Amino acid sequence: MKVGVILGSVRPGRLSSRVGEHVAKALEARGHTPKIFDPAENQLPLLEIPLHFFPPNQEPPAILKRLQQELNEQDAYIFVTAEYNLNVAPALLNFVDHFPYNTWRWKCASVISYSMGNFGGMIAQQTLRQTLGMIGLAALPTSVTLPNVQEQIDELGNCNGDRKQSIEKNIEKLLDELEFFSNAVLAKKETTVVPFNDE
Description:
Elements: E1 2-6, H1 16-29, E2 33-37, H2 39-42, H3 62-72, E3 76-81, E4 83-84, E5 87-88, H4 90-97, H5 101-104, E6 108-114, H6 122-134, E7 138-146, H7 164-191
Parallel strand pairs: 1-2, 1-3, 3-6, 6-7
Antiparallel strand pairs: 4-5
């Protein structure tokens, strides 16, 4: 299964890349093909015109067309968000809002949040779930929150902290759920045309 891992922070010294690498390794260990979508690398501008709002006489930026194609190739998504002022990381929302609903619809998504403090971004996670549902994703119920993430996952994405066992157990549970529901959706798509997929 192809799984897009979508990071949410572009700050210097950010920790989302650590979490993303750890998740990618866990996916690979289960035989999946992860692809990390990193807003710090893609450097999308602050949203002015979403891909689907460009007029016929104006060519969308090549990076938007490439990213949409790569997103369309994914079977499921895992969103990794920090929590800024009790909200989702702005770069993550900016990334999502550049693409039409039919980029996301009829797929499943899981959410992992993190923070340097004690609560692991749980409020941002709930806010993000509302957004994912609005754009057509099936946001699955199992969640992973990673408090004090700087002490738990190193720069290479290895989990070496004192919560290693519980973190890895929780991520495996999240991946079990994502596999179960995504495989069901993929099987259904093989025999049935989706009811609609407009923008």
